[in-house]
């Protein structure tokens, strides 16, 4: 950035932001089936934006200085606890932070002989691996059922050791949208004296409304015996602006173990409920206003529309030759795979037609697939979406599997990334047609095919380098 000598006019700044956003995927309208959550009701997003701006400059760092933060947070956390079986909680910036706090609380509330360990199904979100990495906890990953994709309770039980501080289940897990056997696994954890976290980042503010609309949803919240904490993202199916999640604890002592205080310096006293210290109350204001603007009726209506769209999508995809839906999701996340069609090419073909369908790499015996998050706005365009999936599948079938330059995978697998600087990595990517200049690249099939052929640790090393290059 060239820092201007003289301050510039706001109109000019907004015009420049609009230009920077030109290549962005649209955040409204339902054609982007990941990352964004649209109610289809602009007035709700407008209310959230205004409340967000109203709270923007309030710092949640000191709740005694800004009592509005306490009042608002108690209301928002209270609403989540009322819907999800009680408990006491913390408002956080997102699923990852909620999970980080649940892992910290588990680690600090049970002293074990060795390194603290956590048991998770392979379908659990990477936020748990991140928390483990940051907090020095070891991960014991266990397989899921190869047909239902739900966590295997017996495998979880067998993985628990004397050093296990936490067992994790998802409601639902993101990759296939299925709900793990929460009751069984929480019961096993309780019998072994281990805490159990339900990752309901996706489902917490979704499954109750789907259930009310007629979906079969098994019990998954804090009312289930043995469940000791739960994360619920309001910036997903709560439809709040980003930066909004709640972590609930069954026991107030566990919430205290998530907190942090420091008086070990000569400055102001630090009391933090979250990982972040100084932070804007904007997201809290946005979440509070969204809950108020939609109300119970609004969420019920969104739940009905979401359920109808998810059912239609599952049935429509299953009817397209060569595609199959993975598992039987209770939620509104739908993943489909194919033995005949390259799903990465299908995703690129959809992108050419103006739709973003999220590709997922193969892992732990689960095939590569396309993942769609059905939201409140999907129903209006579900037939158009199915049409695009059918056309993109036909085009991908015609194009055949991605043909990678000979030796490319071996080359990437054997790369000494330490010896390669960012510029050389960028050149290497360009030589196989991948532009890392940060301008939205719709043709991703080659990249995905290369990543798909690599083991997870190589994928991670390449992805970190990729991030470093696009920000250099
Ligand atoms: C099941 C699940 N848990 C946790 C997360 C992490 O949430 P966030 O991206 O808000 O940190 C996600 C995100 O998609 C998720 O799907």
UniProtKB/TrEMBL annotation:
One Pfam family matching this protein: Pyridoxal_deC
This protein's UniProt keywords: Aminotransferase, Lyase, Pyridoxal phosphate, Transferase
Cofactor(s) essential for the protein: pyridoxal 5'-phosphate
Top-rank taxon, per record: Bacteria
GO terms assigned for molecular function: aromatic-L-amino-acid decarboxylase activity; pyridoxal phosphate binding; transaminase activity
Annotated positions of the N6-(pyridoxal phosphate)lysine modification: 236
BP terms from Gene Ontology: carboxylic acid metabolic process
Family assignment from sequence similarity: Belongs to the group II decarboxylase family. Sphingosine-1-phosphate lyase subfamily.
Protein's name in the database: Aspartate aminotransferase family protein
